[in-house]
Design goal:
Blueprint: E1 5-7, E2 10-13, E3 38-40, H1 41-55, E4 57-62, H2 68-78, E5 86-93, H3 97-104, H4 110-116, H5 131-145, E6 150-156, H6 162-167, H7 171-189, E7 195-201, H8 218-221, E8 228-234, E9 236-243, E10 246-253, E11 263-268, E12 277-283, H9 292-297
Parallel strand pairs: 4-7, 4-8, 5-6, 5-7, 8-12
Antiparallel strand pairs: 1-2, 3-11, 9-10, 11-12
Helix pairs in contact: 2-5, 3-4
Amino acid sequence: MMSIRWVGGIALVAALMFPAGHLEAREKPACSPFSRGAMQRATAIQQIECQWVSRRLLILGELHGTNEIPALLTDLVAAQPVNRKIQIGLEWPVAQKAAVDRYLQSAGTAADLAKLTEGPYWKHPDGRMSRAWLRLLDSIRELRQKHRAIGVFMMEPDYGDAASIRAAGGVLAMKEAGMARAIRTVIRTAPPGTIVAALMGNFHSRVGEDSPNPDSSVATRLRAKQPLILVPYARHQTAWICGSDGCGPHTFNSAKPGVAQGMMEIEPLSGAPAGVLAAEVQLHALTASAPANQAIAQ
């Protein structure tokens, strides 16, 4: 019913399922079920965007440190109508909010980029502070300059002191509770018709008995919101992550052939309760995206 592969604490492919809740009252487009088999990327984007609008919340559980998954979110955002209100959640600390907002309002110059990426947080090569995530942010900046109503919010909470972390059940529980809370707040306070996408590591979107502590995950905490859950992967994938052998490009290959270039395959996952749509999205390949500070240095 489900398949989760863990490599160095990272879920490469996950089936996500959790109890259904109640959708907020809103107009829902009539969406066809996901087509079976490989399809053109543009067709897949159309199918995903309809389901995203219908459910309001999209959780994109990524293998950090790739080029293709942030690019997929960029394409999904760009494909929405120009008058659609969108909020994008990033797994960055809430302390980065002011810097991100300043960059989104800037001209995107080299000086603007240097200002955005200053500070010790950007020295962590864990796949989030990557060139690909900067490209996503810059695409949002450019769309906003074209008068698109797109906002960005941070999801990783301020951890406070050691006593606060212990009271919350540890760093992981505190982080995932904070991320879920940030998403709920945006859903509750955003103008009617706003759709929300949350980009996070697929460890945080984990569920299922054979995944580590699934009750703590962001996906489980948001089960009442009936989100669309997408888990992109590829048969041949390289990601810039930190493992037991250090930080850098790590390759995970399967003997099975993948989908062709320019194609995607969406496979709905069985076992999800009524009202919740979870799917694996197979891409042609995943390629490593280096840390953003390397991009700035070049």
